[in-house]
Amino acid sequence: MAQPCGSRAVTISEVQQLVKRKDEIEAQIKACYELLESQKGVGMNEPLVDAEGFPRSDIDLYQVRTARHNIICLQNDHKALMKQVEEALHQLHAREKEKHAKDEAEALAEAMSQNQSLPQAFAKVNTVTPGSPASISGLQVDDEIVEFGSVNVNNFQNLQNIATVVQHSEGRPLSVTVIRGGKKVHLGLTPKRWAGKGLLGCNIIPLQR
C-alpha cells in the first residue's frame, strides 16, 4: 500500500484504499469485542483470575488474551491510518484548491491576451445567403472582418476596396480573417459566379469606429 507523503502527490484511489483499510480494521476491532462479549462479557480490563488468584475456568483465556492484544494493536493501526487519511484528504483538498486558482488565473490571462492581440476590424458581415460562395467558405453573419485579401484596417477606405479585390480574384481563393466570438478565424473565400447575385452572396457594411 503506497503511503501518502509530502514528496509525492497522493491520488484519489490511494485515499480510497486507505478508507477501505480503515473500514477493514474497524470490522476486525468489532469482531474482537464481540468475541470478548461472548466470553462471559469479559471486556478489556476485567480480571482473568478468580478470587483465589487462579486462572478463570469459565472462559477461554487464550482467546480473551489474543482478542485483547489484537484490539490494542488494531486500535494503534486505526489511529495511524486515520492520521494518514486526514493528511491525504487535506492534500487532495489543497491541490484541488490550487488547481482551481491556477485554472482561473490561466483563463483570465488567456482572455486578457486575446483582447490585447485581436486586430482591429473595419467591416462587418450582416447577411449571408445560404448556398452562396460566402456561405460555403464558412462566413457568418456578425463576423467582423480584419483582413479581406489585401484589404485591412490600414488601407480600407470604403466598400469599393473590397469590391475591387473580389472582381480581381474571381475563381481564386482569397484569404479572409474575421473576429468571431472574441476569437480570430481564418477562412478561404473564392469569389465566383453562382445562382444568386454578385460573386460572394453576402452583404458587408463598414464598421463605424
TrEMBL record:
Occurrences of domain PDZ (ranges): 90-182
**Top-level taxon of the source organism:** Eukaryota
Keyword RNA-binding among UniProt keywords: no
Q: Which GO terms describe its biological process?
A: proteasome regulatory particle assembly
Q: Which gene name does the record give?
A: Psmd9
**What are the protein's UniProt keywords?**
Chaperone, Coiled coil
> Which PANTHER family would you find in this protein's record?
26S PROTEASOME NON-ATPASE REGULATORY SUBUNIT 9
Protein name, entry field: 26S proteasome non-ATPase regulatory subunit 9
Query: What is the organism lineage in this UniProt record?
Result: Eukaryota, Metazoa, Chordata, Craniata, Vertebrata
Provenance organism = Eubucco bourcierii (red-headed barbet)
Q: InterPro entries recorded for this chain?
A: Nas2_N, PDZ, PDZ_6, PDZ_sf, PSMD9
